[in-house]
Amino acid sequence: MKTYTEPARTIPVVAETDVLVAGGGPAGIGAALGAARAGAKVMIVEKSNALGGMSTSGMMSHWSSGSTSPLLDEIMHRACASQCLPKEPNEGYSWCISHECLKSTLLQIMDEAGVRVQLYT
How far is CA 2 from the centre of its chain? Predict the structure, then answer.
């Protein structure tokens, strides 16, 4: 088999973490917050300019059906408390998504949990 040999090089270490989460969509958000709130040193890397996946960068128009969870409840109540959503959440969150509001709410929650967020990565 043909091979190539790469010369050795020095690569800087940007961060040391207990948990590295690849992707800032709904699953990544849950994983990062769960690990951080359990005491781990966490970093989340996201390729786009924001956390939230389809609900923010994907410009999803609205929440529909009966999706509820303690974490989603927390996120929606925090977004409403910031007064960037038009009304209090109802069960199922069946209203239009404020993309910019959700972006800033998710970043604030991550910051408070001590999660290091790396966007465009």
Answer: 42
User: Whose structure tokens read 């609205």?
Assistant: 62
- For residue 46, with 0-12 CB atoms within 10 Å meaning exposed, 13-18 middle and 19 or more buried, which class applies? buried
Only one residue has tokens 């849950």, namely 30
Q: What is the pTM of this model?
A: 0.78
- Is 53:82 a contact under the CB 8 Å cutoff? no
Residue ranges of E strands in the chain: 19-22, 42-45, 116-118
Report how far residue 58's alpha carbon sits from residue 76's, in angstroms, rounded to the nearest whole number: 18
- Written as one letter, the residue type at 97 is I
Sheet of 19-22: strand order equals 19-22, 42-45, 116-118
Report pLDDT digits (tens) over 62-101: 665 556 678 877 887 787 777 666 555 555 455 567 788 8
SS3 category, 55 = helix
Altogether, the residues listed in the chain come to a count of 121
CA neighbor of 62 nearest in space, from 96, 38, 37, 105: 96
